[in-house]
Amino acid sequence: MVYDWSGPSVSEFIGLLVRAEDLVARIDERLRKSPAAAGFVERAHFHDAVAALWIEGELVHVEDLVLHDAMMDVRTPTHELTRAHAVLRTRRRIFSQASDWALSRAGLSALVGRESAGPQGSEARLVERPGDAEPLAESDPTDDDEPVDELALQLAEIDAVLARSQRLLDGTTATNQSEIDAAIEPAPDSSNTGTVANIGQPAPIAARSERNELIMDADWDEEQRLAEWLELAGLPHGEATPLLTAALAWDAWEQIAPLQRQAWLGNLLAASALRRAGKTASHLFALNTGLRTVARDRRRARDRHTRLAAFLEGAAAAAEAGLKELDRLAMARVQMERRLRNRRSNSSLPALIELVLSRPMVSTGLVAKELGVTQRAALGLIGELDLRELTGRGRFRAWGIV
Questions:
Q1: N or C: which end of the chain has fewer CB atoms below 10 A?
Q2: pLDDT digit string (tens) for 132-178?
Q3: How many whole angstroms separate alpha carbon 180 and alpha carbon 280?
Q4: For the chain, where do the domains classified as CATH 1.10.3290 start and end?
Q5: Are 368 and 375 in contact (CB under 8 A)?
Q6: What does the angle CA 234 – CA 238 – CA 241 come to, to the nearest 5 degrees?
Q7: Which architecture characterizes domain 22-130+197-326 according to CATH?
Q8: DSSP reduced 3-state for 399
Q9: C-beta of residue 153 within 8 angstroms of C-beta of residue 146
């Protein structure tokens, strides 16, 4: 993919680039010195996750995402809500790591493997969660030195049933228990199969045949596409401005489409490119919140200049919205901190202020859970801060900063 910068729109493009670079640098500098930076960063995670699903044509309410993140859902979570929560968790994970982690081979392998389908994705999720049980092959129920874990045995039986059902759906049957155990137990070298560490090498035939062809394209070589994207995303690093580097990485992801799932990951990686270059060292840029304001026809145009200009407009819009949000949070923080005068040292109001600043909305249950107080006490604390009620209802209410 070769970018030709000649054309009548070069001067206009340079103007967009300079304006976007200035706005992105300004918001990061203000965040570096703002006392409301922590709350802004956390709220940006929620808003950017919702915007990521909006770009894909799915509607997720930020209130539902806040409650789902706190495991306090008022209804059964929808598929769109769980996907938005996956974006939220991915943003938090990227921000918690080093600035160059997401664009490294190890980081990209972890991000891709967590949500990918098939045995590789399942094993990656097991590796990610330290609280999960060890694989069945490492435990011996007949060992007299250790007590038998009844729950582990029951889970093993469930795994056996699921494996048998999967084999029946695939058109094969298990003849004995050893075949079922072989289907459950991961192969010793499965962690090296189909990961970004092996990009550029064809996936083994067995790994490709295990993909569900009903929902996955068997001819879609994700490893090769990721290798191509990494090459394009790494070329301009150090040779172009940080925002132009991110724009090229974003455009390459949109055109190559490396993953059949997790299409939203490309926008997060573009934001990571800004953070790697030191442009947004204080936060992970909420790129999706700006791209949603740009028409889809311009974001997916055939002309590269139009696509890159749309990216720069989206980055500028996200930075402008972030500056306004930061002003609003700083003003709200000053107003709420005035109510802390003459308060006892063990008051829960300071913790409530931090919670309100870090969430788009709060409920009595959420406040009670986070602060360790009763719901009646939570209502009293909310009343003392004089927060605005957002729902207009008498029950199941929510409060926030408007």
A1: C
A2: 433 333 444 444 444 556 777 777 778 777 777 777 776 654 444 45
A3: 50
A4: 22-130+197-326
A5: yes
A6: 105
A7: Orthogonal Bundle (1.10)
A8: strand
A9: no
